[in-house]
């Protein structure tokens, strides 16, 4: 598969790059994508929720009424969950929502995400670029040239470029990441993938290990 290389003005440079069929040309595995996205979202949860159970409520433990003769159910403590202010039955406790999926499944999920975007013609390859200083206007000009201002975009760079990252930070729907940090959730969330030409070879090396 070959993709045209564009410059930041949105013009075709005349260059073409060959991309791996093993990454951009497979049949997307939707279940692998589902598992990897589910894992990503689970890992975003803090899991710090907590409510007091019967043993943790700060109340007296004395028997609040006699056992028999009241006409009501027996009750031993005001801490009982049936009373207002009592403990909660099986309340939430701090926990980690993460779970394990195999490394090969994660790789398959990312390959499937790239292939899905390739099938929908939602990938653009850009010449390597940078900015002299972090300016939001500079990145907006790039998006304007590509007619992607109101589109959810994900720019994948070979390594961290602070000027490009900071320039994009205040723009809604625009995200910048690196090859090492790219994940299936971001790939599927974006409507358009912008991949730096120099990032392609690193991407193929990582996913074809």
Automatic annotation (TrEMBL):
Residues 48-75 are annotated as: Disordered. GO terms for molecular function: rRNA binding; structural constituent of ribosome. It comes from the Bacteria. One of its GO terms (cellular component) is ribosome. The keyword Endoplasmic reticulum does not apply. Keywords: Ribonucleoprotein, Ribosomal protein, RNA-binding, rRNA-binding. The keyword Ribosomal protein applies. One of its GO terms (biological process) is translation. One of the primary rRNA binding proteins, this protein initially binds near the 5'-end of the 23S rRNA. It is important during the early stages of 50S assembly. It makes multiple contacts with different domains of the 23S rRNA in the assembled 50S subunit and ribosome. Belongs to the universal ribosomal protein uL4 family. PANTHER family: 50S RIBOSOMAL PROTEIN L4, LARGE RIBOSOMAL SUBUNIT PROTEIN UL4M. Part of the 50S ribosomal subunit. This is Large ribosomal subunit protein uL4. It comes from Dyadobacter psychrophilus. The lineage of its organism: Bacteria, Pseudomonadati, Bacteroidota, Cytophagia, Cytophagales. The gene is rplD.
